[in-house]
Amino acid sequence: MRFNTFSKPLSFLLLFLSTQTALSYKVAQAQTPVSPATTTKSVCPAQLGKSVDAAINRSVFSRARWGILVQALSSGQTLYSRDAQKFFTPASNAKLLTTAAALQQLGANFRIRTSVYQNANGVLRVVGRGDPSLNDTQLQALAKQLKQKGITQIKQLIADDSYIQGDIVNPTWQWEDVQSDYGAPVNSFILNQNVFGLKLVPQAVGKISQLVWTDANEAKQWRTINQSITVAQNQPSNINVTRDLSGGVLRIQGQVAANSEPYLVNLPVVDPDYYFLRRFRTALATEKISLGQTLVAAGGTNLQELAAVQSPPLSELLIETNHNSNNLYAEALLRALAFKQPRVPNKSTADLGLETLKATLTQLGVNSANYVLVDGSGLSRRDLVTPEAFVQTLRGIARTPVASVYRTSLPVAGKSGTLSSRFRGTPAEGIVQAKTGTLTGAISLSGYVNSPKYEQLVFSIIVNQSEQPASVIRQAMDEIVVLLAQLQRC
């Protein structure tokens, strides 16, 4: 067993295992439905400033920072601006930059390949390249391909994790994030989004809830202390999970309501390489292929490809990234940006990806002084982006041949993704394509308005440092977007 000290620093793994949170709360993706006023009216460009100011200058927002920029898509005429050149924590709006760069650099048909190679003396080498969509079904396909090649026994299987180098989780992410499913680790091997699950099944009131693992292999990796109890059926269900510093103990506390559905908890895997090998062993066994020794090693000679699976095209990966605000997909795409770049000693794949992202956005007309990124998903509180940077990105990608692919990846108001429950019954429904973003104290929304009575618009709205509930902030944001949807020439 080899520990890659560059990609898995022990100190960070200890941090990764030491924290506690209520795992059902998904900070990066949670979206609360809001319903702004549905009254249809015409808004003249001259009236827009006063109307937007009325929405954001309320007393409840007296301590909040608002950054807004609204421009005509084609001409670039500014219709409204407030602190558009100042830095804000962007939350998941950062994915707009990552996906734009990935699409422009790699192309809509780019796929990520996972391969199994034949080496000498019956040794097989599986090479992971950071496919975020890889799942058990594809592992089974690899096993079937090997069986079709006449392989019934594998003496040794090497998992080559050298393709992606660096920390498996970003060291600037908060403790509550890195041990939740939305902060799962990213490296060369990503399987089932590097998450495993367990269920707490209610029993009689006052009794310990029954723990059921969705994967028996993962149950063997932990010593579990289940202290969750079953409470009366009219009580709320709530489960907390604590991992100790040794990495071997999982403590489950909380309550599950009687007669309720099982309470599902998703946890990020600790070591993606060996999680992959455990699941691959199971897939091989299904095909009656015996597997001997497994180990993780970097590099080596790949003599002959025996089996391979590919991800869906990048156009589909973008939809998952932006529609569902998938952090793991965004981080994988950031690293994919480094695929065609020369390797640099002691520089992580993510850092190389960030350099490529910056160069690509500059080609699209985005001022590099308008953003500072340390990850690809926006989960880091150290990311800083101006509303102007988002507008420049949205306008820049709109001038490229892949513009329609990019637009398709964005949620549609009242119809899909993280906007499926917003703007319903308003003039914005169906004509706004935009990316949401949510972190504690940071809410964002940036995208396009296909106004029926005005030219197409591009906008970015970011709110930081507000103590108000996210739903209150989104209500005001949505009122602004509804105004944009009602613009007409006057």
TrEMBL record:
Q: Which GO terms describe its biological process?
A: peptidoglycan metabolic process; proteolysis
- Recorded family membership: Belongs to the peptidase S13 family.
Q: What does the record give under GO molecular function?
A: serine-type D-Ala-D-Ala carboxypeptidase activity
Keywords from the UniProt entry: Carboxypeptidase, Hydrolase, Protease, Signal
Enzyme class per UniProt = hydrolase
Write down the superkingdom of origin.
Bacteria
Region forming the signal peptide: 1-24
Spell out where the chain crosses the membrane. none
Organism from which the protein derives = Dendronalium phyllosphericum CENA369
Pfam families with a match to the protein in the record:
Peptidase_S13
What EC identifiers does the entry list? 3.4.16.4
The name this protein goes by in its record? D-alanyl-D-alanine carboxypeptidase/D-alanyl-D-alanine-endopeptidase
Q: NCBIfam families annotated for this entry?
A: PBP4 (TIGR00666)
- What Gene3D superfamilies does the record tag this protein with? DD-peptidase/beta-lactamase superfamily
Is Hydrolase among the key words of this record? Answer: yes
The residue stretches assigned to a coiled coil in this entry are: none
